[in-house]
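Section 3.1: Structural characterization of target chains.
Under the original work plan, the team committed to producing a structural model for every single-chain target entering the pipeline before any wet-lab resources were allocated. The record below documents one such target. The sequence was received from the expression subgroup and is listed exactly as submitted; it comprises 553 residues.
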Amino acid sequence: MTKRFLSRMSAANIWSYIILVVFITAYAVTMLVEPGFGPNDDFWLLSTLQVGQPAPVHDANFPFYDARETGRFIPLTVQELNIIARLFGTDPFWYFAFNVLQLLVVIVLLVAMLRRVAPNAIVVAVAIVLLMLTPGFVEAWFRMALQERNVFFYLALFLFFYWLDRESAKWWKYALALLSANVALYYKEPVFAAIGAFAGASLLFRWRYSSTMEKLKDAMLILSAVMFVALYIDYAFPHHGPWGHSFNPYPYWLVLTKTVLNYAFFSDPVVVLLVLPLTLWRFYALVATNGREIATIYDSMLFAASGYALVFFALNIYGSYYFVPTYVFATPAVLYFMPRLIMSSGRYWKAASVIAAIVLMVNTLPAGLQMLTYTKYVIINIDKTVDFLVSDMPTRGRNERMNIFLYGVEQGSQAYFILGEFLKYKGLPYEAFDLRSDLAARCSPRCYQVLRPELARRYTVYHEGKLPEVQVGDYLVVSSWSEKDFVMTAAFEKQYKLLFRTNSPLHVPGIDLKSLVKRVIIKRMGDSAKSTGLVVHARVDMDPDYHVYVRTQ
């Protein structure tokens, strides 16, 4: 069978799949090299799963804060790690091995689905490689606790089995599709918009042409999305605090403008420049023809991808990995519609395709390579830095708590608590150190109300009052959390001694166009660029290295 399959393929197609396999293998191996916990949401696991307790559920009893008060309802988040830990142990290698397994399954599903749209293997291979090199996809697979990976995985299963069922109806195909959709719903809230839009578009525009059973299947998916919304409204909405996950201290329209520009011209040009306009175009075409232009499954994909993405515009929040699940639906839909539009008409579609391709080349892919090296190194570097601090503190000969300042990290930032959790995990008691900041919070006191009061009281950095200054004998850590570039001056060199630093020789610096624009803005506007919200993180390059200094005079 394999020989017959290969005999029908051209040499170019065969080489495309060979290169794809080599790329995926290198990608997977890189994920498994020196696996560990990153200085991010991975801290949830250090004082729970890694010490014999179950990975925590995001609910009212979440150990670090009441998850309802942040507007979250994601009960399945990191719960798969409980099963992995029970079966294989708590070595981070096994957690990332599961990520690799998910990656391999996802690639097989993508190839199977994209081959239906684009028989040319070169197109399929290029589409998958480009997707895997976007900063969001890299972050989702190279970090441990990001749920976009699980959402992508289960939505890919959903679409694959739903598509099979549409081609040849079997009860088990739809059952697997329905199950996968419902699992995805409880990993990340915006999934309800994707599932609801997908099934809603199918039900609405195929109403006159679909059977009663097909209508019922779409209705059950819509019901699943509605049930999730009802549970969310009942469970989380009445309890959400004033900070929420969409809180931002800067002017709304400035934030919205930056949000749109970041998605469109940095991390996700395909979604913003192609998928959203395609969805509007198809909606108009379907309504204008009164349903005579029968909706295909690709229309449902467009509506699903747009529904998911629009949630983040409604919340007015940006993250390079937020749109990752949209590509389950967006990739087949774009490969189906765009060649037809480019060949038949439309200057807009040709121009939009060119612009999206340029953005991918000058922004998205360079940022993806930077994110890949950054994410790998930062896991290694935080571990080495914490090990150094734990071993060095006893040599300082001080009876009181040792003070640790984070350079360029404002008062109340969660970064301090994360560092504290790493130090505690490595065996350092809370009584041995204190965390402090000499940089005022831009939105005090709302920035740090999320932590449970008993946890926030442990460290001075979460207390209101006069900001402390770094004193002789205090540590100053330049870290991946720093929000401004570190510049070594003669005065600093005179007052501080370098005790420890990490080295990341293969890290890719910020060579994308966005980094260049950011440098220009900071150079022209100085501190006002940050105070006005035009630039939130004044650190241009994502530097994964850590430096530990001690003040000597």
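DSSP finds 21 helices and five strands in the chain.
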